[in-house]
Amino acid sequence: MSNCIFCKIIARELQSKIVYEDDICMAFDDVNPQAPVHVLIVPREHIPTLNDLTGNHKEMLGHLCMVVNKVAEIKKIKERGFRVAINCNPAGGQMVYHLHVHVMGGRQMTWPPG
Ligand code: AMP
Predict the structure, then answer these.
(1) CA of 95 to the centre of ligand 1 (A)
(2) Residue range 69-90, pLDDT digits in tens
(3) Which domains occur in the chain, in start order?
C-alpha cells in the first residue's frame, strides 16, 4: 500500500530502529514509546485490521506470537514480563491501519488499560 506508513518502513523508504526481521514480519521500536520497551511487530503483508484476517492467515499469526517471544528475549523483558496488544478500529485505539502487535515492557503494567 503506497500510502501506508508501516509498508514504507518495511520497504525501507522510512527509517526505523529494526529489532528483528524475517520473511514474514518486521519488528521495530515504536517512535512514541509508552514503556521503556515498546516494539511493534508488523507482518510484511498489508492487512488493515484484525477484522480483515482470514483462515489463510493462521500460520502468519502463530508466527507473530513466536516473534513476540523472540523480541521479549532480545529486549530482555521475558522473565520479568511484558504486555502484548493489538488495537482494532477507532474504539480500540487503532491509529495505523496496518495490522501490528505491540510488545511493551520494562515497567509495571496496570489494568485496566486506558
Ligand atoms: P495503534 O494505535 O495500535 O495503531 O498504534 C500505532 C503505533 O504506531 C503508535 O504506538 C505509534 O507511536 C506508532 N508509530 C507511528 N508511526 C511510527 C513510525 N514511523 N515508526 C515507529 N512507530 C510508529
Answers:
(1) 7
(2) 999 999 999 999 999 999 999 9
(3) 5-105 (3.30.428.10)
